[in-house]
Write a structure and sequence with these properties.
This protein is α/β, with parallel strands linked by helices. 42% of the residues lie in helices and 20% in strands.
């Protein structure tokens, strides 16, 4: 008999805590809606007590999502739980996820608490949360490096207090699969009242074993697995949702386990998360990497042409990976374009198709053929989560090997006013960014700048991703154009628009500027 397990996605919380992976409120809601479309059972929307901005984001996600459970992470304190309850008050299916460390090293050096104090705090926080929320998850942070008998004792008591899900994290990614599976089995067989709760696991990838450890835990009896899109997360990240789900699907006959994920939505979800965080997926990444279904060696190509099963254990279509079944160009009609959107996993009814088709036609005039990657980039790039404070009107670059690079930039603000500046820089892009800084009246720090091609070929679209910061706060931007300078300018403006929107008092930016997620807060949320 096939056993069904729950998929708990923490991209919006643990994934967003990864360095340089922050999302604004609109982006979090956009990702949350895609996660719901993907079919995750639970999504952890954030850490409400970390800042007013986090609380607002969790609240917005809770209001937007109707089918998936929305969880809020809270330390084992009534103040944190109150913040979580406030954020989830409009959720269709709320869950409080409270945690405290149980390992000797964490209790002594981080918490400065005795085991008895940790036990007492655990019981109190779970009992308090359960009074106001019907679903309470309890995590024993750094459980794998804890005394297993102490974990069993704590779990037994929090079950009595009302915990419905018990999470066993390998917080620092220290476990080996041959250890972690038996560890989970021991907890399951030695915890009193365990039959009243669901066992969950949360594995980090410090040694590259997060997915393997999670599968070992599932085989040992865990019924919920916690993971992130593209494996994002603190340090080396978390167990990758796409890898775990496709292991369960591909090896279903052997494992006897299934989940409710809509696998053709995997690729679109991966690309969306990559877009909003600005973190590219490595080409050889399992399941969603650009090379995942590519075959270059002659013997491999021959085998795949004869029978795809020779070298493919899953099909590109099963994860929504685009394939060039139809060549689109400047003579293609809107019907063909609509059908291609559906083939790529997008729902035309949810998109501004007329605007997209117009942009497609402009692109088709510049390229002989428009690939699936081009169309996907158009769709992902067209989704705006913040209003345009600034818009590009025109730009001119003067650059060469024997003269300084200069850029003239003209922008239009939301009030309809045009502003123009000229700047000199160390190359055309630096000059452009400097001119934009002068227009907006802020000196931004450019934390990272990445430039890549959407497809191969001389006429490929350039895709630029930037991360800018001001006073310790950071924003992402993405730009797309057949001209790499223009793509870079559009990415910089997109990051500025995100900054202007978040820092505006109307959207709670002042609160975020006043209360940022400092390193100490991040450490305290490291389940």
């Amino acid at each position: 008999m096939t056993r069904r397990i729950r998929i708990f996605d923490t991209t919006l919380r643990d994934g967003e805590q990864a360095p340089r992976c922050s999302m604004n409120l609109g982006e979090k809601v956009e990702v949350a809606r895609q996660l719901e479309k993907l079919g995750v059972d639970v999504m952890e929307a954030g850490f409400p007590a970390a800042s007013p901005g986090d609380l607002a984001a969790v609240k917005a996600v809770a209001e937007a999502v109707r089918s998936s459970t929305v969880a809020a992470l809270c330390r084992a304190s009534r103040g944190d739980i109150d913040a979580g309850l406030e954020a989830l008050k409009n959720a269709a299916h709320p869950r409080i996820h409270t945690f405290i460390a149980t390992s000797p090293i964490h209790m002594e050096y981080k918490l400065k608490m005795t085991p008895d104090e940790v036990l007492e705090r655990s019981i109190d926080s779970v009992a308090y949360a359960r009074k106001y929320c019907g679903e309470v998850e309890y995590s024993a942070e750094d459980a794998f490096r804890s005394d297993p008998d102490f974990v069993c004792k704590v779990f037994g008591e929090v079950i009595k207090a009302g915990a419905t899900i018990l999470n066993i994290p390998d917080t620092v990614g220290y476990a080996l699969p041959v250890e972690f599976g038996p560890f989970v089995s021991y907890i399951k067989s030695h915890t009193p009242g365990i039959e009243k709760a669901i066992i969950s696991v949360h594995c980090h990838n410090d040694l590259g074993l997060a997915v393997a450890n999670t599968i070992a835990a599932v085989q040992a009896g865990a019924d919920q697995i916690e993971c992130t899109i593209n494996g994002l997360g603190e340090r080396a990240g978390n167990a990758s949702l796409e890898e775990l789900v496709m292991i369960l699907m591909t090896r279903r006959e052997y494992l006897g386990i299934e989940c409710g994920i809509v696998t053709p939505q995997i690729y679109a979800t991966s690309r969306l998360v990559s877009k909003v965080t600005g973190v590219r997926v490595q080409p050889n990444k399992a399941v969603v990497g650009e090379n995942a279904f590519a075959h270059e060696a002659g013997i491999h190509q021959h085998g795949v042409l004869a029978n795809r099963a020779t070298y493919e254990i899953m099909t590109p279509e099963s994860v929504g990976f685009p394939s060039n079944r139809m060549v689109l160009g400047k003579h293609s009609g809107k019907h063909a374009f609509d059908e291609r959107l559906k083939d790529l996993g997008f729902e035309p009814a949810n998109l501004a198709v007329d605007e997209l088709f117009a942009r497609f036609k402009v692109l088709a005039d510049k390229k002989k053929t428009v690939s699936d990657r081009d169309i996907e980039a158009l769709v992902v790039g067209s989704t705006k989560t913040v209003p345009d404070t600034w818009m590009l009107d025109r730009w001119v670059i003067n650059s060469g090997s024997t003269l300084s690079s200069t850029c003239t930039i003209k922008l239009k603000n939301k009030g309809g006013e045009f502003r123009e500046e000229v700047a000199v820089g160390d190359g055309p892009i630096d000059a452009a960014f400097t001119a934009i800084d002068r227009i907006i009246g802020k000196d931004l720090d450019l934390d990272s700048f990445e430039l890549g091609a959407v497809t191969g070929g001389e006429d490929a679209q350039g895709e630029a991703t930037v991360k800018v910061s001001l006073n310790g706060l950071q924003w992402n931007g993405r730009g797309l154009s057949t001209d790499i300078v223009e793509a870079s300018i559009l990415a910089y403006i997109a990051a500025i628009n995100s900054m202007e929107w978040e820092l505006s008092a109307a959207h709670g930016g002042a609160a975020r500027a006043e209360t940022t997620r400092v390193a100490a807060t991040k450490e305290s949320s490291g389940v």
